[in-house]
């Protein structure tokens, strides 16, 4: 991290967290943030569910909720970008404050509640997306929707033509009863509808399912079974957790989903278990607590074909993505791997 980036982060941390988030997006759009451009190598280039990535380090949903900064983010060293979550109609989300830093824990708690500008605004921005990037959208449902399953399909139908992949998000803890959609019957109905819409797109795209970390082994097995049966192309493990175990920061008791370093072990165990349950046949994307190349490599060796990060940027800046990609290249080389795929799952047993 450069001195300029350290000073910029220090300034942002003096602001209320949500205001700091908006300021960071504004700086990106204004061209005030140094960007490294694509970071790649023969070892880093990889494929997941038919997507060809320059490197396996992605930006998780939540940072660019409304697809406002896709151009600069595509030049920030990420191998792929996920915008959203987007719902059919605009909605304000939960009352403020709803974003809290936990600096002692290198973590964040949020209870945004799918605040976004809606699918029409997102579609207009996605239509102008950078063609060379790999860009996906996190699909969501309106809080007051009478048919949440239909909401996911509607967003994909409207925005799908502009996307390289879509993610079904049933794991946010901040929309009441949303996680109920992870139950087998509700999940099968939801995924079947989304996959049907996907198959009718001018260019069908991979559909991923994002799950919570707070699931037992039986639930993971059932989710994997339903996802496979419905034609889902991969699983993102995991979203934020409701656990507060071991936290030290004053904001630890705020309601919402916890992300960052405390989530790392929990999410990695879920990832490894999913890898075992699916016998390595379904692509997995590892998310939760990644803040270094070593963290990303651990996720890959536990079973992930690619990774995503977000909270790490709060504490280490936007240069983190390129730093992780370059460091990952070195770790793969150190261990004699010619590519990412050769490392996937090689240390899974240690997490079971």
Question: Layout of helices and strands, plus pairs?
Answer:
Elements: H1 3-12, H2 17-29, E1 46-48, E2 51-53, E3 57-59, H3 70-73, E4 80-86, E5 99-102, E6 107-110, H4 119-126, E7 135-139, H5 148-159, E8 165-169, H6 184-200, E9 207-211, H7 217-230, E10 234-237, E11 257-260, H8 264-277, E12 284-287, H9 293-302, E13 306-309, H10 311-316, H11 320-334
Parallel strand pairs: 3-4, 3-13, 4-7, 7-8, 8-9, 9-10, 10-12, 12-13
Antiparallel strand pairs: 1-2, 5-6, 6-11
What does this entry look like structurally?
It is a single chain. This protein is an alpha/beta fold and about 350 residues long. It has one domain: Aldolase class I (TIM Barrel, Alpha-Beta Barrel), CATH 3.20.20.70. About 35% of the residues lie in helices and about 15% in strands. It is built from 11 helices and 13 strands. The strands form 3 sheets. It has an 8-stranded parallel beta barrel, surrounded by 5 helices. Helix 5 packs parallel to helix 6, helix 6 (about 185-200) runs parallel beside helix 7 and helix 8 runs parallel beside helix 9 (about 295-300). The radius of gyration is 18 Å and the shape is globular. The chain starts with a helix and ends in an 18-residue tail after the last helix.
For this entry, give a set of tags:
single chain, 352 residues, alpha/beta, TIM Barrel, three-stranded antiparallel beta sheet, 11 helices, 13 strands, globular
CATH superfamily: Aldolase class I
Number of helices: 11
Derived from helix and strand composition plus strand pairing, the structural class reads alpha/beta
Number of strands: 13
Would you tell me the overall average pLDDT?
95
The H-and-E topology, N to C, reads as HHEEEHEEEHEHEHEHEEHEHEHH
Largest β-sheet summary: 8 strands, parallel, barrel
Terminal-residue CA separation: 34 Å
């Amino acid at each position: 991290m450069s001195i300029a980036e350290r000073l910029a982060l220090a300034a942002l941390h003096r602001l209320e967290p949500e205001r700091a988030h908006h300021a960071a997006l504004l700086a990106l759009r204004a061209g005030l943030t140094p960007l490294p451009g694509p970071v790649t190598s023969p070892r880093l280039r990889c494929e997941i569910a038919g997507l060809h990535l320059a490197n396996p380090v992605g930006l998780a949903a939540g940072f660019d909720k409304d697809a406002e900064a896709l151009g600069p983010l595509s030049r920030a060293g990420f191998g792929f970008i996920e915008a959203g979550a987007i719902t059919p109609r605009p909605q304000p989300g939960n009352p403020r404050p709803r974003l809290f830093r936990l600096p002692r824990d290198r973590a964040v708690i949020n209870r945004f509640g799918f605040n976004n500008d809606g699918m029409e605004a997102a579609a207009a921005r996605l239509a102008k997306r950078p063609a060379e990037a790999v860009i996906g959208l996190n699909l969501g449902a309106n809080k007051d929707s009478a048919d949440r399953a239909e909401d996911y399909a509607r967003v994909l139908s409207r925005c799908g033509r502009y996307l390289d992949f879509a993610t079904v998000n049933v794991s946010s803890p901040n929309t009441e009863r949303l996680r109920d959609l992870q139950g087998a019957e509700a999940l099968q109905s939801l995924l079947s509808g989304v996959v049907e819409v996907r198959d009718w797109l001018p260019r069908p795209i991979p559909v991923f399912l994002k799950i919570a970390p707070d699931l037992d082994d039986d639930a993971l097995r059932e989710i994997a079974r339903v996802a496979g049966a419905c034609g889902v192309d991969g699983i993102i493990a995991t979203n934020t957790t409701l656990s507060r175990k071991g936290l030290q920061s004053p904001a630890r008791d705020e309601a919402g989903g916890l992300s960052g370093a405390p989530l790392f072990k929990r999410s990695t165990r879920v990832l490894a278990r999913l890898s075992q349950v699916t016998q390595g046949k379904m692509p997995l994307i590892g998310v939760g607590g990644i803040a270094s190349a070593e963290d990303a490599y651990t996720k890959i060796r536990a079973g992930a074909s690619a990774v995503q990060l977000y909270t790490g940027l709060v504490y280490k800046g936007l240069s983190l993505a390129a730093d992780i990609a370059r460091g990952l290249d070195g770790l793969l080389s150190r261990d004699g791997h010619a590519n990412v795929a050769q490392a996937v799952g090689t240390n899974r047993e240690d997490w079971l």
